[in-house]
Amino acid sequence: MTTVTIKRRTIYACAGFAISALGPNAARASDITFAVIGPHEYDLPVDFKPFNVFVQYGDGNAAGNTYDGQGSRRGTGGSHTWVGLSKYVHFRSFEAIPKVGFAFELIQAESFTLANGTNYGGLGTTIPGFASWFKPNSHSTFGFQTFMQSPSGTRDATASHYWSNISSFLFDYEWKHFSFDGDLGAVTSVTSKHLKNQNSYTPGTSFFTNLRFSWKATKLLEPFFAFDWQNVAGIYDKTQKMYVSDSSSREVAGGVGVMLNLSKSVSLTMRYSHSIEGRNVPETNAYYMKFVYLW
Prior knowledge:
Blueprint lengths: L2 H5 L43 E13 L2 E2 L5 E2 L4 E16 L2 E19 L2 E17 L5 E10 L14 E11 L3 E12 L11 E2 L3 E10 L5 E12 L3 E2 L4 E2 L5 E13 L4 E14 L1 E2 L2 E10 L1
Antiparallel strand pairs: 1-4, 1-18, 2-3, 2-17, 4-5, 5-6, 6-7, 7-8, 8-9, 9-11, 10-13, 11-12, 12-15, 13-14, 15-16, 16-18
């Protein structure tokens, strides 16, 4: 596959994460893991020369309502959050392993939150990752990706304070005028969360899926539908040896967006999404942006 052919693709750039608040009365934040992805996220080449990609993701969520434990929306406990993900990806294949592609990634999170009359922001977790895939036929892709989410942050409020792993299967199928791709995965804690003079907590495992169906209207314009789902198990208080009440959560969100293929090397994706239903989580009322530059 030539370099020009690769540049005509919408280049893979997948990474997202859920920011979680851990504490006796904390609800999960509304960002669904990998909700930032767009169409063609996993439309990936094989047998190519190495190349690099820079991706900037961004989303803002005005969560004016919160879902309670019975799934009812309440006009309390909302917040405004802005999250960015800056990512560098190196793509390559190996002659010794034909028909298989690889990507090595490094992601830096940024966030700002306005809630309860206070605001804070800064750099969040750093996320290194790896992905591999193959093509069952010329129109489809199937693969696996895994990331380690560090406990780091420039302040306590933007740090997770525990290591976690984000792993998922990915797929893509291309028709002449349509595209369908997505992922299915889980976020698991590798360590417990420890803060000075506080209890020790083990975050619950999170399962998620993200699906994107797009219409290739023109070479420039590609409208799409988005579906995101996440289910998070309860937080376990290791100090008290019991689960934290109302700490498990669930959310389903749907959205519409458009992808602009500005050139062979540049694309811009924009989307709006809103919760369909949820439990113990602020609602999603969010706009998303993704900018991709390939060289």
